[in-house]
Amino acid sequence: MKLIQVLRDDRGSAAAELALVAPLMVLLLLFVVLCGRLATTQVRISDVAHQAVRAATAARTPAQASAAALATAEAALGAAGITCQSLSVLVDSGDLRPGATVTVTVSCVVGLQDLTVLGVPGSRTLSSSFSSVVDLWRGARS
After folding, report:
1. What pLDDT score was predicted for residue 79?
2. How many CA atoms lie within 13 A of 60 on its CB side?
3. How many helices (H) and strands (E) does the chain have?
4. Strand partners, 111
5. Where are the transmembrane segments (predicted)?
6. Within 13 Å, how many C-alpha atoms sit on residue 70's CB side?
7. Among residues 70, 62, 64, 61, which one has the least CA distance to residue 105?
8. Which of 20, 54, 83, 99 is most buried when burial is the number of CB atoms within 10 A of its CB?
């Protein structure tokens, strides 16, 4: 009778269940961190593209527009705390005449090495494009 009572005793079963569930909970937590990091970084890169295109539309020449967009993107990424393994800022400025549309595409390769437990690749490329119109009423400088 005592043997049957020992087999039916469920003391310690909560610890065994916790030992089985804990690794899954850690993986779920890491997955949430991954999703949050990628979503937050994508939003920040969209903001960087917006800032870069506004800087490009203030330039007078396509070369100045490209330089201004790159400098603004680098500064905005630094201020946002984003470190890109590789940064690409492409500017489609046309001739920069008033009323023309300028488009800037920012691409950033973000490292994910600290989340390799999930089996995600070591990096992910996030990009965003933004367009803006060159001010119709801007004055001409010599």
Report:
1. 95
2. 4
3. 3, 3
4. 123
5. 12-34
6. 13
7. 70
8. 54
Q: Which residue has the higher pLDDT, 9 or 92?
A: 92
Structure tokens that stand for 39 in this block: 């979503």
Q: Which two tokens stand for residue 100?
A: 């023309």
Residue 16 has a pLDDT of 77
Model pLDDT, residue 127: 96
DSSP 15-64: HHHHHHHHHHHHHHHHHHHHHHHHHHHHHHHHHHHHHHHHHHHT-SSHHH
Is the CA virtual torsion 76, 94, 102, 110 positive or negative? Answer: negative
- DSSP classification of residue 139: P
Residue 6 has pLDDT above 60, yes or no: no
pLDDT tens digits for range 122-134: 788 999 999 999 9
pLDDT of residue 55: 95
Report how far residue 74's alpha carbon sits from residue 114's, in angstroms, rounded to the nearest whole number. 23
